[in-house]
Amino acid sequence: MCDECGCGQIQTSDDHSHDHGETRVVEIRQNVRAANDALAAQNRNWLRAREVAVVNLISSPGAGKTTLLERTLRELQGGDRPLAVVEGDQQTDNDARRIAATGVAVVQINTGSACHLNAHQVGHALQDLDPPAGALVFVENVGNLICPAGFDLGQGADVTVLSVTEGDDKPEKYPEAFHKADAMVLSKIDLLPHLDFDVERAERFARALNPNLPIFRLSAKTGDGLQGWLDWLAKLT
Amino acid sequence: MHELSIAQAIVEVADSEARKVGATRVARVVVDVGGLSGIVADSLEFCFPMACKGTLVEGAELCIEPIEARGWCDTCDQEFAMRDLLDTCSRCGGFANAIRAGQELAVRTIDVE
Known about the structure:
The structure holds 2 protein chains of 2 kinds. By secondary structure, chain A is of the alpha/beta class.
């Protein structure tokens, strides 16, 4: 009997479908994200074979991802690890031009109407970048604290950036991005004296969602707190 | 509004599965949506007809089956219902140590003609 709809019909075909009057019910049980997840797994295997580490940066628009990236790249340049960047924005190549000015290889993805990157786009961008073995690649996702958290790209680590110019209740309001993060950056801390941002509260809720979350309080502008972040990145493989 | 990408993915699954069984039209798509899947049912319903255009799924009814999210508490050795990721154990008030259900997002069945 069909336990799906309880209609009592005997299933006779392998495809699990049966007549249901004019229509018949076909059982599928397929994860909707399966197609993206399969491409993400492909990216992950490709990256692993090359020993390339990928960090996916997620934040609201204006949290300072690109500024953090510019400073991070400048600090890491000249080291023994090759660097590269994939930029994601709905429109323009403004961010790619800022990254290119640091001398680091960059590919810009414009998502058009889409509010997040997907594994297909990132797979092509990685092939275009062709990062050498041992490289560290940053993916700057579309500025959006909700949607990018739901789409695997094949990255090794997710970093959620929260700036102190936003509300300190962001982890409560947008839990998914903090729940799945491997690290959190609290950015623009040089502005704290001018704001009512409660660092303790933001971090308490981020850790309620993700108990062992490493949190780096830093200012990409002054360089305060940057070393802990750079040390964490150095350990990524 | 990542529900548009999700609606497109649902339609791709439904359309390709319908073709596999030689159907000419999909009348209904039943989707399991977990309480912590990050999907807003209203937005998904809004995007679905747009995503269906030009496929076998055009005109189909979308039926969303909500799945209750369940957290696990290591301290109390029990499951508890969750509506969001910050909901706490009904006994000790601690945060969930693991998510046991609620992240589902799957096409369960399609009705085809």
